[in-house]
Design a protein that fits this description.
This protein is mainly beta. Helices cover 14% and strands 39% of the residues.
């Protein structure tokens, strides 16, 4: 599911190690794992989005060359993720597609949205929410 969300948003990462900065000729990406230093309000990708105060960001990837950011929240639940999707409407995000499976054993949520300046995808499964933002302008 995580791979699907990151590939849909165009923001992916092949690293599996700890804190990494990856550089090639065309790309500079920053991947942080379990670092707790992600600044939601001071980040150009997430600053326009609401922040769920109870969520714990366990990993993030920022890829400025692709104009994208992915954030992994490891203590979420389906209900808080649904509420977060609803709160996006207040920021001008339009829903492109949304799908929720309320299966008691394995609930899932997949969401695609867009605004004037970014596209967003959200995925929830197994207590983990992934938010991927790609700037379009």
């Amino acid at each position: 599911m995580l791979v699907l969300v990151m590939s849909v948003s165009g923001c992916g990462n092949g690293n599996s190690g700890n804190d990494n900065a990856t550089a090639t000729q065309d790309t500079v990406a920053t991947y942080k794992q379990n670092s707790g230093e992600f600044d939601w309000t001071g980040n150009e990708y997430t600053s326009a989005l609401p922040k769920e105060k109870s969520w714990n960001i366990s990993q993030y990837l920022i890829d400025d060359s692709r104009k994208c950011c992915s954030v992994i929240i490891d203590n979420s639940d389906l209900e808080s993720t649904k509420q977060y999707v609803k709160s996006l409407e207040k920021t001008g995000v339009s829903t492109v597609k949304s799908e929720v499976t309320d299966d008691k054993k394995n609930p899932t949520l997949n969401y695609l949205g867009e605004s004037d300046t970014y596209d967003i995808s959200i995925s929830y499964t197994g207590g983990i929410t992934t938010i991927s933002i790609t700037k379009t302008k």
